[in-house]
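Agenda item 2: magnesium ion complex prediction
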Amino acid sequence: MFKRNRHGIQIKTPEQLEKMRAAGLVVGRTLDLLRRSVEPGMTPLDLDVIAEKAIRDQGAIPSFKGYMGFPASICASVNNEVVHGIPTDARKLREGDIIAIDCGAILDSWHGDSAITVPVGEVEPELLELIRITEEAMWAGIRALTPGRRLSDIGYEIERYVTSQGRFGIPSEYGGHGIGTEMHMDPWIANKGRPGRGPVLAPGMCLAIEPMVNLGTEQTRVLADDWTVVTLDGKPSAHFEHSVAVTHNGPWVLTALDGGKERLSQP
Ligand code: MG
Ligand code: MG
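Presented output:
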């Protein structure tokens, strides 16, 4: 039995939120392991093998595998790849690369979805800065997840933060989403735009917040594999994501190991 509000957004009971948290922790732990595993000489496929084992060892199912035909348990997007890269062993990771790893799992029918961008060895300062800005933009969006605020406030806060840091591209075609008994549910969430629009955020909503930030322009294209999104200008891009529950006490970051406590306590 799932309650939906009048906008069609699934509202979870406190018991269901605990199950979302358990699924979120599977993803959080898996990404924590992947972050520590990344090093020059590995292939994205090596990371996929690690991820699938970690997810299954926790009693969960990798949600990406087979999703609309996707062949792997993670998306691995290197350098100019924005999102949805397919992990293969065609190219080893090199010192100076950045890799975005997106991961999802199903535990007891509930979904978790999260992404990180990790430097491979030593990388250029401007890439570290791109990673930092993208992660901070995600947290700016997450801080907007309080009861009474409106859906479009999320994208507004993400864009406002990115713009405060300089000139970057925020792709318009990709965004966040509701999450629960499916990975992708209503509503779709833009990563930019005007505030004060759309449904009012309410306790029990679970939303995946996932900004992508390009070092160059916002334009993207999809490669012939029909999955990999790359920047049109060939410049690097970063991606971060957390699945978050709206609660009376503020955002509960389901895919963060500490529930978001540390980052949300900072101004
Ligand atoms: Mg994801
Ligand atoms: Mg997502």
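Discussion summary: The CA atoms of residues 169 and 218 lie 4 Å apart.
Owner for follow-up: CH.
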